[in-house]
Design a protein that fits this description.
The protein is mostly helical.
Amino acid sequence: MLKLLKWKNPLLLLFGIGVSNLGAWIYLIALNLIVLDMTGSTLAVSVLYILIPSATLCTNFWSGSFIDRLNKRNLMIFLDLVRALFLFLLPFMDSLIFIYVLVFIINIASAIFEPTSMVYMTKLIPKTDRQRFNALRNFINSSGFILGPSIAGFLFIIGSPYLAIELNSLALCTSAVIIFLLPNLELRRETVIAEKVSVKVIRKDWREILSFSK
C-alpha cells in the first residue's frame, strides 16, 4: 500500500505523458489526411514534417533560459492548453498557410514541453526509482506508436480526421488536468526572485554553455 502511494505521482505523470503521446500520433495522421485531401499534393504533406525540426531549431537556442527560470509544472500546463487551443482551431482553417502557421506554433509548444517535462521528471522521481520510471515511460511511448495509428484508423471509420483532431485537443486538456494534480516542486518565492529572461540573459546562458562545453 505504501509503495502504491509512493508511486501515485509518478503514475499520474506517466498517464499524462501517455495520453499526450497517444494524441500526438492520432493528430499527425489525421493532419496528413486533411492536408492531402485539401491539396492533393504530397509536397504539401511533406512540409508538415519539415515544420517539426524547424520548430525545434527555432526554440532550442532560447527555450532553456525560460525553462530554467519558470515554474515547470505551470509551464507544462500552459503548453498543453496552448496546443489544445490551436488544435481545436485547426479544423476551422480553410487556408493551407494558416494551417502551417498553427502547426508550427503547436510544434514550438511541443519542442518546449519535452525538455520541461524532463526537468520536472528529474525533480519528481527519486534517483532510486528513475530506471524503473524511464522503462515504463519508454514502454508507453512505444505503445503510442502502435496504438495511435490504430485508434486514428478507427476514428476515421466512425467519423472523420477532423473528429480525431478535436479528440486530440480534448486529450491535451486531460493531460493538463492530470499535470495540475501533480505537486508543485518549486517554491513561489524562488519563482518570484528568479532572474527575468532577456536577450542579455540568453547570451549569458550561452556563454556558460560554451564555457562548460570547452
